[in-house]
């Protein structure tokens, strides 16, 4: 086995350095919607190697498909953010390939009749179970895709007993390169600047949608997400990381069923790695300090730690897959080199061998997750944890948020129904057509984690790896009414088959466009961009003349917004198209901090220009009406690390030029928005304001209650409303400024998430206007997720316009 494995690795190492004849010599230009030159490395990585370039992958896969009858190579019907192809390779023994529909039929039985599915498996233990392996969702973690390519080659061509056994037991689904844009550009994020491994509750990106499609199509029993690079969490003898995770565990899992197998499978991966340690090259040990040949194990957070690497938020790929019954794992290779590829390869082989040995009982327990949902029987949860259903009322004027939610739930394999007649619950009468999400369904855990109110877990753990609240009703702007687990809705309903997304234009004008959603603001901006005269009332409502009727009728067809005839108030202010410039974070600390705001602005209908700090210093802000800073404070530093240096300013002269150009922009009437802690701190450092900025910890985040004043900046929101924070900010020295909003002055102002020492922010200003400068201590456009709060930014743009 040792020689066979080495032969497989050697062959793909050769392929990595010598492209197949169908490929041009490197460097490659990848051409889809744009011409992109592939990068050779990332400065954020400690080691470098000749990884397989994205442009080489299709040729390798097609060559293997011609050589082997075991594999199928497909391109997703979705493209990456920058228009690149995404490849799915399915590997099984040839006799099984024609039976994929049969396996998917059994998958449907798991969801609809899980008891029958369990009985079937009892009688047919030779069933093949699907395993999904996800390659390099972070573009700079190159080893994942390289390991995937080696694994595909092995299972396509080898005939040893271990290979044949695994193929007898499994259908292997490889998402070869989960992030093509990132691999091409040597970035962690995709072409829209989004970290895809934070997008699985939002699913805002095509790459994420593609992965969700695969997960819901196959219901994989095991899901392996291939990452890097974790060197020292477990000490020098335990390089790398394999989940399961530390607490807190999301309470919407059936975690007892996952835990029954997860640690044993993780330790099987660890054993596979260690058993092959003599075969590692230790290529970069001198600099990486990773000694593969003397490793004794790897870091398994749940076994080796108590907190800090949790599986609480459903934003990560394996954590999301767990809601579909999968045994999900993140695998973090130690180094960015061929040894790191081998570590990943060995870990996957350990997982597959374990699954072969235990597949019958593992898949029965996976189905048990679904059975508990269908039978509304959750033995390890309190009786009140799962409601019996959620009622999602329709909004007569603007259904866009509600319909987005319903479509999102359906896309995630969650059944949504609509009432066949009027009904009453707790004194409220709901009309025919009201949406209902019953919780006696297979994926009740996923439905509940998307629709519940969340919880404050500050006292449960000292720290969190990422966000602790993501509540869709609050942050997307629709209502979800819990029906107590002790109640039963007395209403007949049908499963929703089609959503009517057509809006309506009523009357002959003038027209009132409500300031109620992302889509309604988009409609207003479209009219402005088409040359129509538009007005904005003090309550945020947009008004258009009767001449806009035809344009509005076209626009509302896909918006579900109702536009009514209403006179234009005398106090309404005429609007003009706003030229918006946003400060570009090219990738400081491997992330593009401004990307959520940029995507939000585009969805709101604004035309946005990105300018790097250097461009602002050298060119100024030109004809911009609005300048937005939403990013780290070191974007304006000229003392960044080698890896970060290209994204900030380059010297003190550029810093002074940047400061002078921004000050000149503001003095000439420009509208400046500083969003979040980093931008607020940087703005004070630039001398733009004497506001004093206070911040919470960098790992503090969640949903807060805010008190809004009566202002065009907060139009469309209630006086008592909500906000989202990620490293919260608040302000002092505001006596001569206009305080627009504050955190609610109550001990319970923090609703859900994790925020220690938050009492110091209670009642303090969180939105402050200082002349033409607006400070926002919230993160209203966070990761393109917080739709309900986007309008705080459109309000600020329109209210602050000249």
Task: Assign an overall shape.
Answer: globular
Report the β-strand fraction as a percent range: 15-25%
Distance between the termini: 73 Å
Q: Would you tell me the overall average pLDDT?
A: 93
How many helix segments? 24
Number of β-strand runs = 36
Walk me through the structure:
This protein has about 800 residues and is α+β, with helices and mostly antiparallel strands. The protein is built from 24 helices and 36 strands. The strands form 8 sheets. Strands 25, 26, 27, 28, 30, 31, 33, 34, 35 and 36 form a 10-stranded mixed sheet that branches. A 7-stranded mixed sheet has the order 3-4-6-5-7-11-8, with helices on both faces. Strands 19-23-20-22-21-24 form a 6-stranded mixed sheet. Strand 21 (about 535) and strand 22 (about 540-545) form a beta hairpin. Helix 2 (about 55-65) runs parallel beside helix 6, helix 6 (about 145-155) crosses helix 14 and helix 21 packs across helix 22 (about 650-665). The longest helix has about 35 residues, at about 340-375. The protein starts with a helix and ends with a helix. About 55% of the residues are buried.
